Amino acid sequence: MDSFSPSERRVARALLADYPSAGLRTAASLGKDAGVSAPSVVRFTVAIGLESFSALQAALRDELSLRSQGPLGRVQWQADDGSNAEMLVRRARQLADDAVASLASIPPTEIDRAIDLLADSSRRLFLTGGRFSGALAQHLAINLEQIRPRVRLVSDPFGADMIRVVDLAARDVYLLVDFHRYQRSTVDLARHAKRCGASVILITDGKLSPAAADADVVLPISVSAPSPFYSLSAAIMLVELLVIPVFHRLGAKGEERMGKWDAFRSRELLQTEQPTTD
Description:
5 strands
């Protein structure tokens, strides 16, 4: 949102706060919610690359239709040409190209703010994903806990891990992962964390989870794939690459933490002799 004017930012936040319903009402109604005029709403639609407010509403209606589709709605029944091995390589190249393009489109200011928050080891850091994206949150948590303290994966925020959510405080950081066919629980969790004064980082897809309305940092990443299922390829690249500048920012503290972690972890690992050659 850095490129938006103040009035355009107000429209964007009003739209995200009740997404997509706010955009399906009249321009005057959305403008009233945002505290701006109807012409300002129209200028906002032009700023995001649409010709008119009616074009925005058409796009929102198309998105609502897409949201109702599960994996079967994305099946391409036409088989690829060539062998299975050729298909795998071709699709791998497509995923890699899409991932790089998606990473390049994330606003640099959002990446910088995310690194600042993740590298602040004086703050508690909580991470939660959904049914599909929980593995991503876990992967990031496992990497971060090796280099900084106070990292907690919250797998069941409204159940077994509820006490961690209840105890959220103003200096906490909460990283959420929520992709298309968004989870109501994630949106509720973002809203609760914001009320508690915590800083919220959201990793989501390009359509933006409604949780973006309460996020301080939004990192949109592609989950598109040449299959009926969404892909975490680009998102995994994002979280793994974020850890590197966080580690550099932590400096000696990060190295010391990793050394302690590795020493303790080595107790569990089997020591195997390396083969020798004559």
